Amino acid sequence: MLEVDIKKNLPGFAIRASFSSGPGVLGILGPSGCGKSMTLKCIAGLVTPDAGRIVLNRRVLLDTSKGINVPPQERRVGMLFQHYALFPHLTVKENVAFGLKHLSRPSREQRVEQLLALTRLSDYAHRLPHQLSGGQQQRVALARALAPEPELLLLDEPFAALDSQVKGRLERELMTLQPQYMGMAVMVSHNLEEVYRLCSRIAVFADGTVLQVGDKEQVVKRPASRTVARIIGIKNLFEGILVASKAAQWEVDVPELGMRLKVRGEPDAPPAKAGGPVVVGIRPADIGVEMDGGDGSPGSPSGREISPGDGETANSCTAHVVQVLEGIDRCTLFLRVAGGAAREDDYHLQADLPRGAGSCPAPGQQCRVYLPQDRLMLLEDR
Amino acid sequence: MNKLDLFPLMLSLRVAGIATMLAVLAGLPLAWYLARRRGRLADLLDSLITLPLVLPPTVLGYYLLVALGRQSPIGHFLEQQFGLTLVFTPRGAVIAACVASIPYFIKSARAALEGVDRDLVDAARTLGRTEGEIFLAIIVPIAWRGLAAGGVLTFARALGDFGTTLMVAGGIPGRTLTMPIAIYNSILAGDRGMANLLVAVMTLAALAVIFTLNRLQRSFIRGRD
Q1: pLDDT single digits (tens) A68-120
Q2: Could you give the number of structural domains in chain B?
Q3: Domain that holds residue A189
Q4: Where residue B84 falls among pLDDT bands split at 50, 70, 90?
Q5: A347, B35, B97, B99: which could form a disulfide with B19 (CB 3.0–4.6 Å)?
């Protein structure tokens, strides 16, 4: 169990981080330069917060009110650095053995061999770091961090410096190693996909503050605010007025789209009273798009099926395609809604369609857009 | 032509060698402090360390003479307690060469130490090693090139010192007469042949030392470049 509650003033901004984490991996997600790495350094003891408390498995590592500040050497917290921080003048074996000085020579040798085998590095034991590939270097860094059996492992943007092939493989290795060898870990990343794949819980960070902590499903499905929604990839966000509210069924006027949207949500209170301002959000992949003249033709991409049971005209409108980004697996469409207000951007909605075997729609094409009631989210305007 | 007297050369090499060792021993902790701290105290210390580079050697020598002479508190204390005299002795020559050359070591060492990636030090800390172990096992080997370069420069400066040494040690033949002073004396005495010979020996000795140190420095580098 890790409990963190720290304050640290830095030039330009301040960290006010408060969260706790149990077994498994906690992902700290946030844009670059929001104090995520600094928070990890505070947990490791490499940076001393101005005030606060850090407790790891009932061991108080930091308590500024009691003058406790355990040095990094005694925290039993391992750290994987973004650029690995391997000692360039030491071999792979010497790097891994660096944290095992307390062991006798035979048991040190044994532990190093075990870790090298675990990370598939036995053949490289006598190489120097610069003779290894990026992925191998990362595995050395991992083996070195795990060697002294830390109670907590901190991972600072562990995959940021790797190409995508190596990254995928390392992610799988980390997943297999994690439950057995790491116990508890905290990972910092700006990549939502990465955090979602590897972590069980997510803490969303912005400007040095924790905006939301929780189970990853909960954070992704029910972001607490507009800022969180933006960080977790909800690209379509609109200001609106809540006009009607009854048992988990709300209606919101959205002037930007010129639409009144029906929203079906969790059976709890909406973030505003009727007549109050709210923010409505939807993921690009959750928008249904049906191209005009394209229906029925094989291979033409379409979004979610427009189910007739939802009512013919509810949450749907006509739009035209302003711009298209063609990906390999999907098309990203930028759509302007027919009745929408003028906007700074020249589009209102961003929609991701699975591409299948067909080609992407072309700019200028007309389409019908459908915003499923159960995929829309009501958010607080924070 | 007089017979070549090797005493000044040997004395110079010995004085410069010892002065360099002292400069490294005293300079490394100072450079480490300056590399990590910012503030008024560090700035003041940095200015003090730079002073020997800027002051004329004779001025530096005069300060040392006043500070270490028999009438000074330090000189008096050393003589009373340990029977040590510094002024006009080979020891004085070592101190003069060391003070004149230590800025070269501290400046290079500081730059080299500042160049060591902080993450490496942090990584070593999370691996449970003490600050002293980290300094010796990580920082010094990685900064080795810069430290060695600083050592070479320091040695070269100490070997060539004239003004400071002359003021503090006096250039007594057979006792404190170092090579640069011997060269000056030969010129003064009109012995051109001797001067040429000494200059050639000095140049060769300096070249040999620097070449050896450069080779040595290269062979110590592992895992870089």
Answers
A1: 999 999 999 999 998 999 999 999 999 999 999 889 999 999 999 999 998 88
A2: 1
A3: 2-221
A4: confident
A5: B97
Q: Show Cβ contacts of residue B222 under 8 Å, excluding neighbours closer than 6 positions.
A: A89, A128, B141
**What is the pLDDT, as a whole number, of residue A163?**
77
Q: pLDDT digits over B12-59, tens only?
A: 999 999 999 999 999 999 999 998 888 888 889 999 999 999 999 999
Residues A123, A77 within the same domain: yes
Q: What is the pLDDT of residue A202?
A: 93
Residue A226 lies in a domain: no
Do A211 and A245 fall into the same domain? no
Question: Which residue is associated with the tokens 């067909």?
Answer: A358
Shortest alpha-carbon distance between residue B117 and chain A (Å): 8
For chain A, how many structural domains are there in total?
A: 2
Model pTM greater than 0.95? no
- Its domain, for residue B63, covers 7-220
Q: Interface of chain A against chain B, CB under 8 Å?
A: 41, 44-46, 71-75, 77-79, 81, 83, 85, 87-90, 98-99, 101-102, 128-130, 144-145, 147-148, 150
**ipTM reported for the complex, 2 dp:** 0.81
Distance from CA of B38 to the nearest CA of A (A): 16
The residues, any chain, with a CB within 8 Å of residue A8's CB and separated by 6 or more, are: A14, A15, A35, A38, A42, A47, A49, A50, A52, A208
Residues in chain B closer than 8 A to A90 (CB atoms): 223
Q: Which residues in B131-163 are b (16+ Cβ under 10 Å) and which e? A: eeebbebbbbbbbbbbbbbbbbbbbbbbbbbbb
Determine, for residues A89 and B128 on separate chains, whether the beta-carbon distance falls below 8 Å. Answer: no
| CATH number of the structural domain spanning residue A343 | 2.40.50.100
